[in-house]
Amino acid sequence: xxxxxxxxxxxxxxxxPAAATPDRAARPAGGEKAPASRSLxxxxxxxxxxxxxxxxxxxxxxxxxxxxxSVVPSKAAELQPEVHGATGYEAHFGMGGRTARAVVxxxxxxxxxxxxxxxxxxxxxxxxxxxxxxxxxxxxxxxEKAELVWRVAPGGTEVxxxxxxxxxxxxxxxxxxxxxIDVPEDAFGTLRVSIRTTSADGxxxxxxxxxxxxxxxxxxxxxxxxxxxxxxxxEGKLRAGDKVEIAYDRDRLAAMLGGVTPSDVVACVSFNxxxxxxxxxxxxxxxxxxxxxMFMPSLQVPIEATEMTLWFKGQGGGSTSYDSxxxxxxxxxxxxxxxxxxxxxxxxxxxxxxFPNLQAEDFVGIGPSSQRYNCIAWTLGIQDQWVWPGTRLExxxxxxxxxxxxxxxxxxxxxxxxxxxxxxYGLKPxxxxxxxxxxxxxxxxxxxxxxxxxxxxxxxRHNSADDxxxxxxxxxxxxxxxxxxxxxxxx
Length: 491
Description:
The chain is mostly beta strands. It contains six helices and 33 strands. Strands 27-32-31-30-29-33-28 form a seven-stranded antiparallel β-sheet. A hairpin with a 4-residue loop joins β13 and β14 (204-207). It is globular and about 75 Å long.
């Protein structure tokens, strides 16, 4: 019996917001809040520490069984020359929205999904160029100079590329030029992109938001190959934080369409059971290209991913066919990230203005970046939910009381091996009167050290509560205790 027939089992039981592409599960409102005056370039402000909002959590279900995963180094190569990877990428900042595409040299191009606007909209790949174009109307008429500013985040050095030669159009705006970013061979993480303009008086203005960024697929990774003999094979090791290539032979769908060559072939890719990304697999022919060429996408596996699910669909003969293992989809386990998968995240934390007391020797990473849970969830032993009961201390009193914690009458940061302690941070009102705004929670271990999930950033172990005291989290304002229970697994 073949594994080739059946519609995918993705079903949405709750409608997603009309304006959002559901590529991230939503989290409850609230989070680790930062002062409103903080710069957006600081990676730990309220925008960075609260996950994106999209379709409600639990709105979609993906089920299936594991697909075969034998290592056959030559299968992806055997699909060529019909299947091609990108030789470069393009991103366009338009007035009406954003567009992204992959370029396959000598063949054509592929329009790529741009997400919901709450995170990276564009695609990049280590060692391959990304060309950025900007609509002149995005620039102020008073601008005398415009630059594209980029860096690899976290930790990268800023690079500025001219966006104009100084000439102007009929309306008086600067004409723009393409800006080519040569993505480093060792790049990992996010390519942070912004537009910087300079006026005649030398005043600079920078425009950035998370949707301007590109997700980088690093050099190292795996290929998942779907051959026309109905085999599904993995080449290399599929790991969080690495690249995954999808090599798909469209003859699989053609067989289900009665021999009709399918058009509009799409790979539906989901990580951790979240709503899928739909990636086109047909190359639109350019000069020198030929119809029927297939695209092999290279995607960044999220650092928090533990599972990847795939299925495919295509049009032909007036009907739509699905390759989805009888509706159960193709499911793959994702291994943990390499130890050096994100070596620069620590530099990003240290360069942040949020934690002026934090020193490199004061902390280590014990868990990857994740949008699935936050600091308060971590203190409760939860790693698959975003927990935030409110902003007042009274809200947290009620939350921790349900877990058997009691607040101490003073902020006692000493270690008692017999007590489990949670340290809650807060910002006191600048006026000197009014309620404290809770910002963060940390869990004390048996040695008196603290473990903190930094918003959507990594889980860290730090030496003292004072390490995170500063303009973002404020200072410790309450300590909750209960008899020590079995330790939370920090591995």
